[in-house]
Design a protein that fits this description.
CATH architecture: 3-Layer(aba) Sandwich
Strand content: 15-25%
Largest sheet: 9 strands, mixed
Radius of gyration: 24 Å
Number of domains: 1
Number of strands: 17
Distance between the termini: 65 Å
CATH topology: Alkaline Phosphatase, subunit A
Oligomer: single chain
Helix content: 25-40%
Shape: globular
Length: about 475
């Protein structure tokens, strides 16, 4: 045998090995992207044989929209009302409360840590009597539809690892994002749009966001999030160049498919089919994307519901409205990112600006989904990467203060399918510094999210570099107390 043939044989064996150990749920998603919907039964059969514990429970959630508030919204000024702080305002945070918790470099050099109450009024709303700040009047109007988790906590104390932890299950870059795991595990319900779509508010400022937050990591590349942008090219490199007709694209894809089939027959590399799936999805998106972005049929009362910014593409309000349209078309996972919640200093001015930009549209999305019957099988999530401290960062005055990062307790909420509406879950201490009842870790949140989709978080795995990875790493439990 020639030396080249020996090398080729070894290469083939290695590729076959890795292919066989990396197959699984990806086959289901690939079937949803590559071929007609009628082909899914064959792929589903393979999927069930390989991982019979995945998706055996009846899923309550068909689609998710995750409104990620980047920067760390202050739970003490929005949702976690602490009247005792009025009495202790200006006093130093007791060591018995802090318990030696590490601080960031922004406030670590402070000699005192004066506690500050919120300058905003809180009232109770709805049948659930939920305390909400005056900064959130629209959210206050829908509290009976919301499931609040007051006892979220994380290990990460700085932005990038904290955001990466929430989005990928690890503080280190390189892991697949939540949306990619969902795409890999459950595939797509719309063969003309990606299963995972990302929207980022324009001109929001704040901490940077990186594309790896919606990346596929080590999963096949067709599961990465596809970012829709405002402006002429909503999806980069989607449009054909001038003078290139759709029939030309069809012939090009047909020829490329034949070449890829030859390569796949030789090497059995799953990534070959993944690339082909992306090419064909892009071809279908040339028709589906302009259609979903067309807002001409939205009546004035819908724009009025979401607020005046909803007429300005790329704003948070416009992205919330676009998210509703994507959910109507059964996009499995829609991720919105809104930056600017990082108020270390001059918090009152910063947080009031953020609430004006987001509160109405957030509540409008929940209302809009509910009135269209979509909230029955859609999960809406609102929250950031951590909370803010009870003590003031920098100088405390009568009407101004700042708050540093606080990972030990913060508030998130969910609404829609599978969660108990009007629920306040978890309790923090009277200072809003520690969780005292029903703590919920980041991995618990992720496990619960997958459970609502009908997926066992311990079974949704992918073998990479000799280890089976999962979104929740090596721990995490479903928070049964928030389930309906």
């Amino acid at each position: 045998m020639e030396e080249s043939e020996v090398k080729h044989g070894k290469l083939l064996d290695r590729r076959e090995f890795f292919t066989k150990t990396s197959m699984g749920l990806g086959a289901l998603a690939l079937g949803g992207l590559l071929g007609p919907l009628s082909l899914r039964s064959e792929v589903q059969s393979l999927h069930t044989q390989r991982l019979p514990l995945i998706g055996t429970k009846n899923p309550k959630v068909k689609r998710i929209v995750y409104l990620f508030q980047s920067g760390g919204p202050s739970q003490l000024d929005l949702f976690d009302y602490k009247p005792l702080l009025k009495e202790f305002h200006g006093q130093n945070l007791p060591d018995s409360v802090r318990k030696g918790q590490r601080l960031t470099g922004m406030s670590g050099n402070q000699t005192t840590f004066p506690m500050t109450t919120s300058i905003y009024d809180f009232k109770q709303y709805g049948s659930c009597q939920r305390w909400v700040s005056e900064l959130m009047p629209y959210t206050a109007g829908i509290v009976d539809d919301l499931c609040f988790i007051n006892s979220m906590h994380t290990e990460a104390i700085n932005h990038d690892p904290a955001i990466t932890f929430f989005q990928t299950g690890s503080m280190l870059p390189g892991r697949p994002s939540i949306g990619s795991w969902v795409s890999y595990g459950l595939g797509s319900d719309n063969e003309n749009l990606p299963a995972f779509i990302v929207l980022v508010s324009k001109n929001a400022g704040g901490q940077p966001l990186y594309a790896r937050l919606w990346g596929n990591g080590f999963l096949p590349t067709e599961h990465q999030g596809v970012q829709f942008r405002s402006g002429k090219d909503a999806v980069l490199f989607l449009e054909d160049p001038d003078g290139f007709e759709r029939t030309d694209r069809e012939r090009m894809l047909d020829g490329l498919r034949k070449l890829n089939n030859v390569q796949n027959d030789t090497y059995q590399d799953a990534e070959i089919n993944a690339r082909m799936a992306q090419y064909e999805m892009a071809f279908r998106m040339q028709t589906s994307v302009p259609e979903v972005l067309d807002m001409s049929n939205e009546p004035d009362h819908v724009y009025n519901l979401y607020g005046p910014d909803s007429r300005d593409p790329g704003t948070y309000a416009a992205n919330c409205l676009l998210a509703r349209k994507l959910l109507e078309r059964d996009v499995k996972f829609v991720q919105l990112y809104h930056q600017g919640w990082d108020q270390h200093l001059n918090l009152p001015a910063g947080i009031s600006h953020q609430c004006r930009n987001t509160d109405q549209a957030t509540a409008a999305l929940v209302k809009d989904l509910k009135q269209r019957g979509l909230l029955e099988d859609t999960l809406v999530i609102w929250g950031g990467e951590f909370g803010r401290t009870v003590y003031s960062q920098g100088k405390l005055t009568a009407d101004n203060y700042g708050r540093d990062h606080h990972p030990r307790c913060f508030t998130m909420w969910m609404a829609g399918a599978g969660v108990r509406p009007g629920l306040n879950y978890g309790i923090t201490d009277d200072f809003g510094y520690n969780v005292v009842q029903d703590p919920v870790h980041v991995h618990d949140f992720q496990a619960t999210l997958l459970h609502l989709l009908g997926v066992d978080h311990e079974q949704l795995t992918f073998k990479y570099q000799g280890r089976r990875f999962r979104l929740t790493d090596v721990h995490g439990k479903v928070v049964n107390g928030v389930l309906s």
